[in-house]
Design a protein that fits this description.
heterodimer, A: mainly alpha, 8 helices, extended, B: mainly alpha, 73% helix, 0% strand
């Protein structure tokens, strides 16, 4: 069995994301937590890159690891929480009892998601290409020859469908000929995303900007000193 | 060997449950808030994985990626409000332990 470099990278970054996520909840110092969360977000961004969502990967790094994490660090350092130690009056046993319900709930949730993911139609048939019955064109499984011989059920197993630069070029400019479209070599991810964002979801986008404005005003209103007079 | 969709979903589910565990276990409200952000980012990951898996004609479903972008933007607004609330709480109580929020508790 040969492993493609993309698979190795996926599993490496997945392991890194999970280890850093565990480090976030087990670190005593909030600054350590924040740094581990930055690493966790960076690994998630790498996985998004691997999925072909370059723009969202960049956004993940800029917004999550850049803006949100820095805000957290500002607050942690402003409030001087390092002096705030976990109270050690609890014994180990009482700590365990305190943690047990949370660990139980999240463990049950993880098992639930695991079973749901495995029970997706065809999810354990690793070798079948991912195909869906409603796509009658037979072109969904690009790079797989037996597209028309797929079973007529939804199938979530196998590799994710390959990206098709020709279809992307055609989507951006329907006027160009098939030969012109076939010359395209990459997926213009940002252009396609922006096309959706500013046409179909334009109103939602404008409303979102109001939400951000409300957030800014709310943050200023909450953190201002209340004068007592 | 290529990575099936199920592995992305399992990774996203595991990250979400680690975040959930942090929210339930930790007492430091700042770390609780960080774990909330981690849960949002895990949900984003599964949205993007499904967008790729449900793609038609070799293109991902960009509606899902727009939704993921909205989630990131709302998370940014939420962090601004939440951290302001934490600062306000620290001013009032001089602590960030969630155990200090017991005004409604009868004693």
């Amino acid at each position: 069995m040969d492993f493609a470099i993309s698979s190795i990278l996926f599993y490496a970054f997945a392991a890194m994301a999970l280890i850093c996520a565990c480090a976030v909840i087990f670190a005593n110092n909030p600054v350590t937590s924040a740094m581990n969360m930055a690493l966790c977000f960076a690994a998630t961004a790498a996985i998004l890159f691997g999925l072909g969502a370059q723009f969202l990967g960049i956004v993940q790094i800029i917004v999550y690891a850049g803006a949100i994490l820095v805000l957290f660090l500002f607050v942690v350092m402003m409030l001087d929480i390092k002096t705030e130690e976990e109270d050690n009056s609890f014994t180990v046993f009482r700590n365990l009892v305190r943690m047990a319900p949370g660990a139980l709930v999240s463990g049950v949730f993880a098992a639930m998601v695991f079973i749901a993911a495995i029970k997706l139609p065809g999810a354990t048939e690793w070798n079948n290409p991912l195909c869906k019955a409603w796509d009658s064109m037979g072109e969904l499984c690009i790079g797989k020859q037996e597209a028309s011989e797929q079973p007529a059920v939804s199938n979530f197993g196998g590799a994710l469908p390959a990206l098709n630069p020709a279809a992307a070029a055609k989507e951006l400019n329907p006027a160009i000929s098939n030969e012109e479209a076939a010359k395209a070599t990459d997926i213009p991810d940002v252009k396609l995303l922006g096309q959706k964002l500013f046409s179909r979801y334009n109103i939602a986008f404008v409303i979102l900007s109001f939400a951000l404005l409300a957030g800014t005003v709310g943050a200023v209103a909450l953190s201002r000193k209340i004068r007592k007079d | 060997m290529d990575i099936p969709l199920a592995h992305y979903l399992i990774l996203s589910g595991l990250m979400f449950s680690i975040g959930l565990a942090g929210v339930l276990i930790r007492k430091n409200i700042i770390v609780v808030f960080m774990c909330l952000e981690m849960m949002l980012s895990a949900a984003n990951l599964s949205l993007v994985a499904f967008s790729r898996a449900n793609g038609v004609n070799g293109l991902p479903v960009y509606d899902a990626q727009v939704l993921a972008l909205f989630v990131v933007a709302i998370a940014a607004a939420e962090v601004a409000i939440g951290l302001a609330l934490i600062v306000a709480m620290f001013r009032a109580r001089r602590t960030v332990s969630s155990a200090a929020l017991n005004t409604l508790k009868e004693d």
